[in-house]
Structures are given as structure tokens and as C-alpha cells.
Design brief:
The protein has 9 helices and 8 strands. With 244 residues, the chain is α/β, with parallel strands linked by helices. It has a single domain, classed as Rossmann fold (3-Layer(aba) Sandwich), CATH 3.40.50.150.
Length: 244
């Protein structure tokens, strides 16, 4: 994949994956006993849509959000959005989610929307757990199979794109194995995929149609979008809210 072109196509997007304010709020509201001065780590923050939502949610608790991403482009977009919002309780830092530069037991909440797949669901839950304070919570979204009778077309696509993809039940077993208590889980609505991610992305494709390597990349992205439109009943992002 031409990563430079990929980053250009994905620039100036509201999100770098499915998500919505309503889902972020619902997940946050399922976390009990939010302490004053709550510290939230947003891993893989992208351009910061959920980061801003989190910052607003923790304001009544005099809380702060520390947001990290590997790509400076997304951090710049998130910083700009934060400046425009007027929020003062967000700090951004460039960091690799597999090697976070924070002490153990540093955060009350760890948050990650559409990013934990980069290190694997179980690996992420195990590794990030040590960053939590005792009794802390983790909220993550992970693409999951929603039914057992998966159409062959969808199965073949994700067997190549994300072979570690599990059913919701399979992920719940992983969560239990990692030593978390499940507070709640729910499936993101279709508008979180289409209105907030795929439709804005699709509108950018004509801007890059004459670029070297764009045909293959755009075809790959288009196939993913059409797959979701055809088979959204069979897979989606599941929000898992957990407590150690």
C-alpha cells in the first residue's frame, strides 16, 4: 500500500474509523464512580472527534484527557479541532500504542475507538491493563461478527483484511480471560459507519483519481464500503466497556 497516498486520502476527515458522539457518551455513562480529577488516556485518537467528546464528558469532574497517536498528521488535525473548540483539558502526544510512555497505574480510564486491532484485541487488553489504576475502566471498539451464518463474500474479505476478527461472544470470552468485568457492550449504529466515516471518505476519491497508485487503493477502499452496505447486519463495531 502507498501509505503516503493513503494518509492524503484520509486527511481532513471527521474520523479515521466508525464512531459517533452518541456511542461515546453511552459508553462513558456506563462507567461507575467517575472520580474527581479523572485521567483518561485516548489511544489512537486520530483527528480527535471522540477526544473532544471525552473532554466535554469529564469537564464536570475536573478531568483531563491525554490523547496519543502514531501519526503527526492526525495529531495536528486534533490539535486544531481542540483549539477551535476552546477546550482546555486535552493534551496530545505522539506515541506508539505498543510502547506507551506512561507509568503503570496512571489512568482511571483507557479509551480506544477503532484502533486496538493494530495490536490485536487480546494483546491490547492485556498490555493496557497495567496502565490502569485499581478499579479502572477500559472502553474500546472492536470490529466483530454479529451473526454466525456469515456470507462467504464477507468472510473471505475479512479473513484477508483482519483474520483475527471474532464474534461478540468470542470477544467476551477474551475479556473474561484477561480478567476484566464486563460493564456493557453494544453495537455501533450504521450512521457511525456511513455518515461519519465511509460517506465522507468516498467523497474524497475523485480528488485523487489521477495519482499514481490511486486506482488500486481507491478500489480496495470502495470494496470495503460496498461490503458494509451489503452486509452490515453481519458485522460491525462493538463497544466493549470493561472494569478491572
Amino acid at each position: 500500500m502507498n501509505m503516503k497516498l493513503f494518509m492524503e486520502i484520509h486527511s481532513d476527515m471527521p474520523r479515521q474509523g466508525p464512531g459517533c458522539t452518541e456511542a461515546t457518551r453511552r459508553a462513558f455513562e456506563n462507567i461507575p464512580d467517575i472520580p474527581q480529577g479523572v485521567r483518561v488516556l485516548d489511544i489512537g485518537c486520530g483527528p480527535g472527534a471522540q477526544t473532544l467528546d471525552l473532554a466535554r464528558l469529564v469537564e464536570p469532574f475536573n478531568g483531563e484527557v491525554i490523547a496519543v497517536d502514531l501519526y503527526e498528521q492526525y495529531l495536528d488535525e486534533a490539535r486544531q479541532a481542540t483549539e477551535q473548540s476552546g477546550l482546555q483539558n486535552i493534551t496530545f502526544q505522539k506515541a506508539d500504542m505498543t510502547d506507551l510512555p506512561f507509568d503503570d497505574a496512571s489512568f482511571d480510564i483507557i479509551w480506544s475507538e477503532g484502533a486496538i486491532y493494530n495490536m490485536g484485541f487480546e494483546n491490547g487488553l492485556r498490555d493496557w491493563k497495567r496502565r490502569l489504576k485499581p478499579g479502572g475502566a477500559i472502553a474500546v471498539t472492536e470490529i466483530s461478527w454479529l451473526k454466525d451464518d456469515i456470507p462467504e463474500t464477507a468472510h473471505e474479505f475479512w479473513a484477508e483484511g483482519y483474520p483475527a476478527m471474532q464474534t461478540v461472544e468470542g470477544n467476551l470470552e477474551i475479556i473474561d480471560r484477561c480478567g476484566y468485568r464486563i460493564l456493557d457492550h453494544f453495537t455501533l449504529p450504521e450512521n457511525a459507519w456511513l455518515d461519519n466515516y465511509y460517506n465522507p471518505l468516498e467523497k474524497r476519491f475523485p480528488l485523487f483519481k489521477d495519482r499514481d497508485g490511486s486506482d488500486e487503493l481507491i478500489a480496495m477502499e470502495t470494496a470495503e464500503i460496498e461490503l458494509y452496505r451489503n452486509y452490515s447486519n453481519y458485522y460491525g463495531y462493538e463497544f466493549y466497556i470493561l472494569q478491572q
